[in-house]
Design a protein that fits this description.
By secondary structure, the protein is of the alpha+beta class. It has one domain: SMI1/KNR4-like. The protein is 30% helix and 20% strand. It contains five helices and eight strands; from the N terminus they run ααββαββαββββα. A six-stranded antiparallel β-sheet has the order 2-8-7-6-5-4. Strands 1-3 form a two-stranded antiparallel sheet. The termini are far apart.
């Protein structure tokens, strides 16, 4: 990914991207991840209510990560989320990867949580209602996710 593209993305989202993310994307692109690795997600309801037993069973360990590491794909995915009506997608988040189920890995660009990585299942429901009120914390940074959070699948898989 070129430095010019990083500038284009920063201009589009109105803030700077984390330095670690920019370094990885400009030096190791395309980035290929081991799709057999799994990772834990700390799922949360955005209304801060605890997850019910049924909700907890719906959210399992996930796998099959595909990073958006080429400019065309990342541009398309960022445009998809940013151009979708704002009531549907979480605010201040850009896509950085997806898994085999279609779940997005998003990077938070808000000042309070800048660079943190979150999981989100796309929904046509308005943000905060029905099936669009769950977000999962994954890592403190893109580097933390890549180098510390991915793990071998359990033997019972």
């Amino acid at each position: 990914m070129s430095k010019a593209f990083v500038t284009e993305v920063e201009d589009r989202v109105g803030t700077t991207l984390p330095d670690g993310f920019k370094y990885i994307m400009t030096h190791f692109s395309p980035l290929y991840l081991d799709e057999t690795k799994t990772f834990e997600v700390d799922w949360r309801r955005i209304d801060h209510e605890p997850l019910s037993v049924e909700e907890q069973e719906d959210f399992e360990r996930t796998f099959g990560i595909r990073a958006f590491s080429d400019e065309a794909t990342l541009r398309k995915e960022i445009s998809f989320l940013l151009d979708t009506p704002p009531c549907v997608t979480p605010k201040n988040l850009i896509p950085v990867a997806t898994d085999m189920s279609g779940m997005y890995l998003l990077m938070d660009l808000s000042p309070e949580k800048h660079g943190t990585i979150w999981a989100w299942f796309p929904s046509s429901d308005p943000w905060g209602q029905e099936n669009n009120m769950y977000i999962g914390f994954m890592a403190d940074s893109y580097e933390d996710f890549l180098f510390n959070r991915m793990q071998e699948p359990p033997e019972d898989w």
